[in-house]
Design a protein that fits this description.
The structure holds three protein chains of three kinds. Chain A is an alpha+beta fold. Chain A starts with a helix and ends with a strand. Chain B has two domains: 195 residues, no CATH class; 174 residues, no CATH class. By secondary structure, chain B is of the alpha+beta class. Chain C has one domain: Rossmann fold. In chain C, helix 7 links the parallel strand 7 and strand 8. Chain C is globular, with a radius of gyration of 18 Å. Classes of the chains: A alpha+beta, B alpha+beta, C alpha/beta. Chains in contact: A-B, B-C. Chains B and C meet through helix 1, helix 10 and helix 15 of B and helix 2 and helix 3 of C.
Chain lengths: 127, 385, 250
Amino acid sequence: MKHRAFIGFIVGELLILLLFFAFGQATVRLREGELRAKRDIVWKLMLTDFALWTEARYTRNPSQADLFSAFQDFPSSLEHFPAGSIIPPGKVNEPTEIKYKKVSPGTLKQWPVFGLTKVEDGTLGIR
Amino acid sequence: MERHKKILEYTLSSLFRRRYKNLALIAVFGIVVTVLSSILFLTHSLKSEALYVLDGSPELIVQKVSGGRNDLIPLDYMRRIQVIPGIGHVVPRYWGYYYDSLTGGNYTILGIDQDVKELKLLDGRVPTGNGECALGKGVSDARFAGIGGELVLTDSRGMAVSSRVVGVFTSESDLLANDLILINKDEVRSLFGMPPDKATDLDVGVYNTSEVSNIAQKIKRLLPDTRPITKNEIIRTYDTVFNWRSGMILTMFFGAIIAFCILAWDKATGLSADEKQEIGILKAIGWETSDILEMKFWEGVIISLTAFLTGIIIAYAHVYFFGAFLLAPALMGWSVLFPPFRLMPYLDLYQITVLLFLTVIPYVASTIIPAWKSAITDPDVIMRG
Amino acid sequence: MRDETSKQKGMAIHNEARGFMDTLIVTENVSKVFNPGMPDEMKAITDVSLEINKGEFVVLKGPSGSGKTSLLGLIGCMSRPTAGRILINGRDVAKLPERFLTMIRRKEFGFIFQQFNLIKGVSVLENVMLPLFPTDAMISDIKNRAEGILEKLNILHKKDFKVQRLSGGEQQRVAISRALINEPEAVLADEPTAHLDTKLSEDLIRIMQELNQEGKTIIIASHDPLVYEKPFINKLVEMRDGIVKEVTAR
C-alpha cells in the first residue's frame, strides 16, 4: 500500500530529525566545558575576534578595523579580498558635530544645506 | 478518513507513473533546501558561539587613530584615562600581524604578560621568558613546528629571531587561536620595532558595564585622536558578519531562491493536456471538485515535504557532522590558514519553521491553484469532446 | 433464441402485472443551452419532457447534433438544465449543489462513455475501483467487488494489465465494469457502439440486455440501427434538433 509506505517514510524522516535535535542538545551540554574554556582564553589573552579570515587586517579583526582600512592604501582601491564581501562595513556610531559661528543675522538662510537643525547656539547637529 | 487514504494512494500512484520527472523535482527542491538551511545553520551556530565566547572580550579597547589609520598608542594615555571615574584597569596590549612568505599566510603575534600562568585548551605550557612561544594549531601545522620544535621569524630589522615552541593550542580552540603566536610582550616590541613608550592599543576595564558608552564618550572627548571600541560593538560586528544578508552568502541564497522560483513557475504555468484529461475523467466518474483539489494538495505535499525533510537532514549532517565542507571553500576567501569547522549544533527552530513556510506552502499553492479551473468544470465536459 | 423470447415475455408480463410502475426519471420541460449569451451559444435541448421507469430499456435515437448526448448527461446528473425540472426518484435535482448531485449520481447511475475514457497508465482493476475512491468504503471491500464484476465480464485474468495494452473489446468490458462498481440503479451509455465492429457491438448489446434482465434500467443514446432496432427495447425516444419527435413504448 503506497500510502502506508509514504506515511512511514515521512514519520521516519521526522524521527531522524528528532534524533538530530536530541543529539544537538546533548552535544551542546557535553561541550559546555569547551565553550567556557574558549571564553577563558578570550578573557586571558584579551582577544576580540574569531581567527577566521586571516587574509587581511580588517578581515582578521573586523571589530577593530577602522572604516578606511578596507580601502587599504588608496581611496579608489576597491575591495579585493573575497572575505571582504562576507563582512559588511562597520557601523558608524559617533554622531558628527559641526561647530559654527554666526557672522551676521540672516546668513544661515542663504545656505541651501540639507537637514541643518540648530541645536544650540554654536553647535549644529546634522541628521 | 478512508477517503483521504484512498485519494493519497491514487496520488502516489499518479506521481509514480511519471516517476523520473517527480524525482527530479524532489531533487531540485531538496538541493535548494539543503543550500539554504546549510547557510542558516552555519551562520546561526557561529553567531551563537560568538555571542557566548566573545563575552569575555575587554569592555573597552582604546586605539589611536592617525590620518584615518590605526596607529600605536602612547603609554602616556593610560595615565590620563585612569583618572576617569568608573574606570577599573588599564592594560596595554602588544600585538600585530606577521606575514610569512614561506607559507603565504598571515599570523597574529600576541604578547603576553608574566601573570598569565596557564591557559586552557593548550597542550604543553604558556611561554614564560624570552625565546619561547606557544602556537595555534594552524601555525604549528603550516610550519611543521610541534612542541619542542623551533619557530624562526624575521624581525623589523630583517634579522632572524628563533623561538622554542613550548605549547600548541588544541584543535578545539581553532576558531580563536588558529593563527596565533604567543610570545613574551617584550619580544613583541623588539620583533615589531615598537618604541618603548608605545603599545598597540589599550584594554580598559569598567566597573559598571551600563556606563561603558558614557565612559567611551568621555575618553573620546578627553583624547580626540583615539577610537574607543566597546564590547557591545565587538559582539554586534559578529551579529552582522554572520547575518544572512551579507555579500557572498546573499549571493548563494539568491541563487537558491531563483532556482526555487523557476520550479514553482513551471508548476504554476498550468496543467498539461494529459493532466487536464485525467481530471476530466475523474470528474465524470464521480469525483467532486473538492476531491480533485485534495488530490492536487497531496501532490504538492508529497513532493515538497519529502524534499524539505530530506534537505534539512542532509544540511544538518553536512554542517554538523562533516564540517560544512561544501560551504567552507566559499567562506574561506584567500585565507591560507582557515580553521576547520567544528560547529556547535545550535538549532534555531524559528528559522527552520520560516524556511518551511517559505518553501512548502508556496509550492503546494502553485500545485493546487493552476488546477482550480480544471477542477471546477462540469463532469459532462469530457462527454462533449 | 427461444430462451431470450420467453425471458422477454416474462419481463413484460411482470411489468404489466405491477400496474403502477416505479418512475425513476422524469424530465419536465427541460432545456439546455451551452455558452448562453456568447457568440458560440448553442441550444442543445429545447423543452423536453420524458418519463423513464425502473427496469426499462430505453434508447435515445437520433443523428449527431440531435441533443441525445446532452439529454443523457442531464438525466445522469452530469450537468444542470438551463430550464425545467429533472426528478430522480421523485426528487428535483436541477438546483442541487454539486455535493448532493454527485451523491445521487454515485448512488443511481453508472456511465459508459463513447471513448471509454479509461485512465491510461493505470491498471484495469484500479480503473474499475476509481469511482469509489472518494467514498469512505474500505479499499479491500471495493477491491472484492471489482474483482467480482471483472470475473462476471470475463476479464479478471487481465486485472493488473495497464488499460492501453488491452484490445478494443477488452477495454469495452472494463468500461462496463467501471460503470457497475457502484451498483447503480441505471446504466447510461453514450454511443457505445460507435467505434466497434458488428461482433463487439452485438456483444455489448447482449451484456446490456443481461443487465436489464437483472433489473437494471438501461438508457442508451445511439444512432446505430444495431442498437435501436432491437425488439426488447421498452422505450424508443426519437430526437431531432434538440426536440423529442416521437416516443415509442413497448
